[in-house]
């Protein structure tokens, strides 16, 4: 498993019955479909697809075959995110924003709403079901600059702004501004380094799924969250009229 800026690796086999795919988008999805069709468990890097429709196809096939389709989401396993979630829990959100900036992406990572699905997963995990009210996209091809701004709403119509900004040499930063009733959070809380690596935590969770240690209810919640985020990403891309 690699961070989003890392080189996508060829397919790697873990055993006869489960493996992880690392292919660019079209071959990526095709390889996943091939493995699922063969009745194999699949562990795939996020986002599993660069369109909502392709992701639904993968999940439908996995369920039909009765196999595990696991999408890696190490961003939810980081210690700083766990601490942030504790800070947010039980608070009444009034409005908020999440602004991510980073270097240019290599070709094949898709539109910013998909390549930045980790940040969207944060927002959905923290604040529940979201909807897209508006989205814009700015690009300066000569400067290698791109910026996506999405306006989101929580289920009780509280506004959230999500920004993804990319350019070669741009420092990697993640800024938050969450306003709650009587409390404002403007920095991600510091947290001590975990004793178990993120990728190992993810593999342990994948293994737990394979051995039946994860409840059907938890699996369903995870599938709903993943498809919800990919559906939001698709809506944002459509609003920005980016193909």
Task: Describe this entry's structure for a reader.
This protein has 243 residues and is an alpha/beta fold. It has a domain at 74-185: Dihydrodipicolinate Reductase, domain 2. 37% of the residues lie in helices and 26% in strands. The strands form two sheets. The chain has a six-stranded mixed β-sheet. Helix 1 (25-37) packs parallel to helix 2 (52-65) and helix 5 crosses helix 7 (216-240).
Give a topology summary.
Layout: E1 12-13, E2 18-21, H1 25-37, E3 41-44, H2 52-65, E4 69-71, H3 79-88, E5 93-102, H4 112-115, H5 117-127, E6 130-140, E7 145-154, E8 159-166, E9 173-180, E10 183-185, H6 198-210, H7 216-240
Helix pairs in contact: 1-2, 2-7, 5-7
Element string (H = helix, E = strand): EEHEHEHEHHEEEEEHH
Mean model confidence by pLDDT: 88
What's the helix count? 7
Proportion of residues in helical segments: 25-40%
**Largest sheet composition:** 6 strands, mixed
Q: In percent, how much strand structure appears in the residues?
A: 25-35%
- Separation of the first and last Cα atoms: 27 Å
Q: What is the CATH architecture annotation of the domain at 74-185?
A: 2-Layer Sandwich
What is the assigned CATH homologous superfamily of the domain at 74-185? Dihydrodipicolinate Reductase, domain 2
* Low-pLDDT segments, ≥5 res: 1-25
Overall geometry comes to: globular
Structure classification: alpha/beta
Short précis:
With 243 residues, the protein is α/β, with parallel strands linked by helices.
